[in-house]
Amino acid sequence: MESPVVLIPALRDNYIALLYATDGRSVVIVDPSEAEPAIRYIENRGLQPLAILNTHHHPDHVGGNRELQQTYDLPVYGSAEDRDRIPGLTHPMYDGDTVTPAGLNRRGLVWDIPGHTRSHVAFVFLDDELLFAGDTLFAAGCGRLFEGSAKQMHTSLSRLAELPESTRLFCGHEYTVKNLRFARVVEPENPDIEYKLARAEALREEGEPTLPSTMGEELRTNPFLRVGEPAVRETARAQGVNGDDMVAVFAAIRAWRDRF
Ligand SMILES: [Zn+2]
Predict the structure, then answer these.
(1) Could you give the domains of the chain?
(2) I want to staple 222 with a disulfide (CB 3.0 to 4.6 A). Which of 39, 94, 107, 218 is the partner?
(3) pTM score, two decimals?
């Protein structure tokens, strides 16, 4: 199946995702960090924008909301908890709610996945096997803990890890190469990391996105989804962490990544 998602590079290393409706002519805009690149893409192709979906309130995810809304009069979907901090929010959502902008004809669920922020959500399109994970799950990485605890983030990532392996992962940033270099230090003996790093470096040399990833690839390469693996626990133990405590292992690796 051809991907119904295109990624538009924005700011320094952000991606704005456009998800095509089944008609192939209308789109929803996920996390517009800025308006201009999205408007240019939409106008050049004569597309019809339907809505904005925001995973969280950070400026590099909502910075284009106002201008896009003024240009196209769009509904904005995001966490109800971000009511006061997502510009132009019209559809405050709760865990398990369905995102159904008119004309999209795809069913997207809102999942609360706190940790990066206290009110971060994912948009999960189960039938289409698409996951928009914002700054919670990156290819081979995860977001910094700004407002949440290690326990919260570990729980959120564990929830995403239950998605089918063929689910395509779209996230907010192009951090894959650096993340995989870190993953290789955590798990030097993991050939899947080596293989994926070589592929990611080649894509970046061509100026291509390394995304989407798949949940299957993440389960095999992402140290933050692998805190139960003996090799990862061993690495944490070597740093003085209780290797039997998955949250402690997660916290240690997250802190290590901050210094990497
Ligand atoms: Zn963020």
Answers:
(1) 5-259 (3.60.15.10)
(2) 218
(3) 0.97
